[in-house]
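Q: Structure tokens for this one, please.
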Amino acid sequence: MYTLKSNKSMMKLMGPIFLSLTMLMTLLGAPANFQSKAHAAGEQRPFPQQVNYSGIIKPNHVSQSSMNSSVSSYYDYWKNKYVKNNLSSLPGGYYVKGDITGSAEGFDPLGTSEGQGFGMVITVLMAGHDSNAKTIYDGMFKTARAFKSSGNSNLMGWVVADSANAQGHFGSATDGDLDIAYSLILAHNQWGSSGTINYLSEAIKMINAIKSSNVTTSNRLNLGDWDSKSALNSRPSDWMLSHLRAFHEVTGDQTWINVINGLYTAYSQVSNTYASSTGLISDFIVDNPAKPAPQNYLDEFPETNQYYYNASRVPLRIVMDYALYGDTRAKTIADKIAVWIKGKTGGSPSQVMAGYTLSGTALNSYGEAVFTSPMISAATTSTSHQAWVNAGWDYMKNAKSSYFSDSYNMFNLLYVSGNWWKPGSSGGSTDTQAPTAPGSLTATAASSSQINLSWTASTDNVGVTGYRVFRGGVQVGTPTGTTFNDTGLSASTAYSYTVKAVDAAGNLSANSNTASASTSAIPSGSNLALGKTTVASSIEGAGFEASKATDGNSSTRWASVEGSNNQWIYVDLGTTQSIDQVKLNWEAAYGKGYKIQVSNDATTWTDVFTTTTGNGAIDDITFTATNGRYVRVLGTERGTAYGYSLFDFEVYGSGGGSTDTQAPTAPASLTATAASSSQINLNWTASSDNVGVTGYRVFRGGVQVGTPTGTTFNDTGLTASTAYSYTVKAIDAAGNLSANSSTETATTSAASTGSNLALGKTTVASSIEGTGFEASKATDGNSSTRWASIEGSNSQWIYVDLGTSQSVNRVKLNWEAAYGKGYKIQISNDAATWTDVFTTTTGNGAIDDVAFTATNGRYVRVLGTERGTIYGYSLFDFEVYGS
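A: Here is the predicted structure, written as tokens:
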């Protein structure tokens, strides 16, 4: 979070001409608010654009010309105060001067990627008013590229500092990159992409990087490229829905629509449950179903569970999806917020306070434009809010304070005045020429489940941005290059394909020729690599050994060190075999480029398959039968900023493969037992299978919540005094699912009361990350301080000395983002011999409220066995309660 004026004499000369032109245009039926649009640097959409969106109102007590003038004046103030180009380490680099929250790691912070995104959007929209806009914009882009992220070089590191060492030092922040990528689309529409910077190409590069690093498996946006792809935490101020729609229009990638739908779902889950009367949402959300993050989440503010300085931006991001794209879900949310805030303030925008609880109680007695202006924008959805919008405009145009508030106020001024235009909409590029059709399409069966396509490139008057692949008339892919591998197909089946090219304006070419191919039959045989000795060039850490890829367990995995392209893994089959098939089940960190090689001595290798267009998921590859004892996957190019990671590495001989279609038996004797006010423990008897059970799927209320490999599962993060119902299914290596187990129900206990026995007591840890993260920070009763262990080690612990022996039956852990996936709670009377009272391997962070059988002891320890992230373990609070 937060982390050139016209020549006067010329105007005297042009005045009568403009007057005559205005009169002529009025006679011809032009709008009364017609205003000249000067072109300062070849702008296609110069300020003012003064767009009118369907269903959206503007202030009606002032003229459009007056609004444009107010926006121009505010921009001049904003630019003079915040836009700087004084970086000695980067001549020509512009940035937005602003404050940061968080550590600058020894650098003197001047700004952030968030500010860079604000500045780039504002500057491109104000081009035409500011004759220097393109120079400033290009200078801001130069800074964004120079200060690339340490995790993904196509994203921006979150801190700007006047030091070459800061360039490439910091990880990214999702909000800044979203605005920067979106601004590049605007820049393409504003100035075209044939100049020094190919704005469109750079936009697509960033959009794909955001998808790679920030789009999670649950169709949310994580917090930065340092965050997990499976993360459930998200920051609603990053939910820039209209940006994501622009990304979809530029790339044709359905992912962005999926993310939009996922974010709307998360919004409704939080708002409907925790803010039913206000429509508000918290600064951060966690879990699935989504809920407000705990207080002091990520050390941002104590108010991370409330509507505060991050979430203040949300109403504008939401309402723009209705204004620009007509999604009525956005209108429903915006209307609800507008109705509530009008009632809360008695219709006076000056009474909007800086922050609210989700139920609507003010957190402060002062106001800020960053809170007020988005509330005005939200109200543009209905004429019933006209008086509020009018009063809000008068407030907004005069509100001036600091970088964060002023920059976001500028966003709202542009939107409310109609000067935030939709990329690709009328008034800009008039490109209507479609690309040529792709040529020479070929389709080749690669395996029993994969067909590979290739074609020759299309041409376009502006530029081809990508392709649309159709299987039987249904779109199945949106590659940017001239190849596509279609996976997950049925064996011994014919498929037909066509391809179309698309340009930035959305013009689609005619179809390519039709190409057909048939997948091969499923070969028979067994996985020759199962359980065999496996060796890798490196591992990310304990728990990611090479053997995890050949153990037949699809929930364990091998992972290489991060950041290196040249990594490998090979399996020793024990004897020479005839090999013709390899199946790779990739984790999110996949190989874009890799080779499959065979050897008889693990020294001299023969390539049997090579690709540079891998796309992750499952690669089922067949090739000419080759004799060898050793089979290797040699990575040549990572598909992400991380390393390579495989859940499964399977090898089959001539005619190899599996024809297992028999499902396991249903799990039996399922029991569900409440362990605490937030946890229910499940166990069941093992299923059987003709080949072998590989794991289980746990369903709560019909929704999958766990994938254990054993016959127990602890479901955490539940609501106190609430009934939950569960079923379990078994799964085998071929993916066959059993029938459901019986349905079992349990009710969480009521929230516990009593005093925290650990508060202020002596606390000891195995290690600390550094000064400020001592063990005592977890028991000081302050949820904004925390203990943090050293990074990269699974075996770390923290214990508290209660002073005397106590009867202990509950421990509450408030995890920071670096949580324990696997840990034990232990009790001792001498801090030497420990008794386990609770064990889990499925921790998911946030708050774990764990109850267990009352046990006597003076010392209580949390022993980490497996980290949930690549960092260490970190606790805001470690609380202990007695019987």
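A few notes: The two ends are 42 Å apart (CA to CA). Residues 272 and 279 are 7 Å apart (CA to CA).
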